[in-house]
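notes to self, project folder thing:

trying the whole complex as one job this time. last attempt i did each chain seperately and stitching them together was a nightmare. three parts in total, labels are on each line so i dont mix them up again. if this works i'll redo the older ones the same way
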Amino acid sequence: MRTAGERPGAPGGSADPMVPRPFRVTRRRRETADTFTLDLVAEDGKPFAFAPGQFNMLYVHGVGEVPISISGDPADGTRLVHTIRAVGKVSAALCAMKRGDLVALRGPYGKPWPTVEAEGHDVVFIAGGVGLAPLRPAIVHAIANRHRFGKVIVLYGARSPADMLFAEEVQRWRGLFSMEVDATVDRAGPDWLGRVGVVTKLVERAEFDPAHTLAMICGPEVMMRFSVEMLTRRGVAEDRIYVSMERNMKCAVGFCGHCQWGSAFVCRDGPVFRHDRIAHLNAIREL
Amino acid sequence: MVDIHSVSELLKDLEFFREFGEATIELLAGCATNVAYRPGDYVFREGGSADAFFIIRHGDVALEIHAPGREPLVFETLHPGDAIGWSWMVPPFKWSYDARCRTVVRGLSFDATCLRGKMEADHEIGYQLMRRFLPVMSRRLLGARLQLLDLYAAEKAR
Amino acid sequence: MVCAVNKHLDARLLDPAGADELVRALQRRGFSVIAPAIEDDIVVLREYGPADTLPRGYSDTQDGGSYRLTRTGDDRLFAYAAAPQGFKRVLWPPRQTLYESRRTADRLEILPVTEEPKKLALFAARACEIDAIAILDGVFDNGDFADPGYWARRRDAFVVLVECGRSGDTCFCASMGTGPAREAGFDIALTEIFGNGPHRLLARAGSERGAEVLAEIAGRPATAGDADDRNRMLAEVAAAQARRMPADVAAILAANPEHARWNAVAERCLTCGNCTMVCPTCFCSTTEDSSSLDMSTATRARRWDSCFTIDYSYIHGGAVRASARSRYRQWISHKLSTWHEQFGRAGCVGCGRCITWCPVGIDIVEEANAIAASSA
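result (full assembly):
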């Protein structure tokens, strides 16, 4: 048996995978009324590698720790980017951070988006609400490696125009000739010139070749279920549809038990799951 | 270029009528006229008589509900290929919201009295149209339910 | 960790007093010996000493929601069945400090809290208990991550097995395949033989160091007759167990997530979490934060948690498992079904604690059998 000390633990070489290392906030941007993006740089200067779709555990001194997916560019090994919505005391404390403040962080954790499997396919990213944040690294990766993919399509549903994440960047993506971006909101005032309606309507109309399409979906579970439904109705195979799940997590390393979903530990077996492998779990309530 | 097509040729090009036979198309064409609107025009308004339905060929239409003291709430936008309205099929044939053009809109308008007469006279046509409208209604109902859930909202207080 | 077993070690016979001698031999080698003792009318596992603290002449009666210590009127050492708490709380303490966070004007320091590990000897672990430890080993070293605190306590722990001479009233280890006999996973195994010839302990070494320790204890070679007595006794213990888990319970539970029985059990279940607190394999934990008044120093700790609490499955917006039905289903399905997919075996060892310590006497075996009997 190997000893515990040989096992990869937290980044920075600490033996205990529960122990984080300090990072400093170098930039804070307001995305929406309750969602902020923080740029973080490791105090020890060591680079931080991650794959799109992975998450970190962010600790706020004396307040607690929460799992937050990484929303930055996977090619940038020094600046770690997290987009955080203030929904609890820890996420609210993170959102209240200012430039120069310190957090502690461990990760990255979890199974990433299938960026390699997606090569050669039309790639459809379907995001709902803050679900665009965990997809952003995969989208950035697809743009940076554009020639490896067929069509690149981003479909984004938000609550209202004011609730859209990365609004300027989404506009910039929309301006690229190499990809298609469409957005829709659930409700809008008369000034909004974009679409109003559910995101499944975008899925219904998007132009991709279902036989050669890989889809990555992140958003509320209900939105993901209906998006999967629309994709399969259009002929996308269930084994080329991927979703990112959210469950309570206290450890992210398989020890705490909280994130179990059927036999899956969402922290280690997910958060990204291939749909055909978890479709049976989706059917059971309160699982 | 619209002018050189007959209305029935326009109909054949529309996804909405894809499953319809030649004869049905001709019948429908008999009830259809080309329409065009400027931005800000209303295709119809809440409470108005639902004497037509529309297929958008170009442009965007916002479906809105007005409430006193607040700006109109857009609950859905419709785009090329979409049908607007099914109130023409359901008594008392009144529109239940506003349809406002956000852009220049071109489309086809189908005279409801004409259509209802043909549906009544030939139930096969009635069935074909019902069959085509029901999925539209069903999808919009599902969409409305999902919007009602306000899925992306942050929870209020725990 | 246990070394390779020397197959040539012969079984030995010890007098009953050999148990205390064995403890003291381990103490001489620097082990902190965690052994059974009587406290507050229950059997507890705690550090042995200073006097001879092994219980003598104790047994128990157990039933759904009921535990009573009884006197045997003789000198038997191991006539009682599963104690309320197993060795889990020794290897995975209910509260563990993870780290201290210190904040100064321009720095944040994270200081891991590492306790100096004691050399632990786990004395009189029953077969089910050793099986439970093997399960925890798999949880706390999952291939990607290992918990250093657990392994600091576990890695060199000296394990003394005691094979049960009596089946507890709620035990079902035989149908789980975890006991009462055990041939590996210990340094020394003891089997108490009573009422059949002289009162004696049959001792076997399961490791080199076990053999070394055993060699220091006064004893004599065991005979084939002693081995026969052991086998007969263990067969009787297994046969005495009325509760039997259905063999295909994993598949049955997986196929019946909407079974009506879940509603019935939910009407009785108080979601108190007692079953998870006494279960020797329940490993769930949560975290808690505290800080000094000036917020300069904060401590992060881990403590046992239970899947029966409402907050356990909380994600923003509400709990995933809001109903008692779904929480009971989660617990039993995890123990008996999904554990197989996660760890290649059941998460239940048949110790019966969850039955005994359930305040309303819900019986995991009865529930599993009820679902099996009316399975869709």
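what i see at first glance: The mean pLDDT of chain B is 88.
need to look closer tmrw
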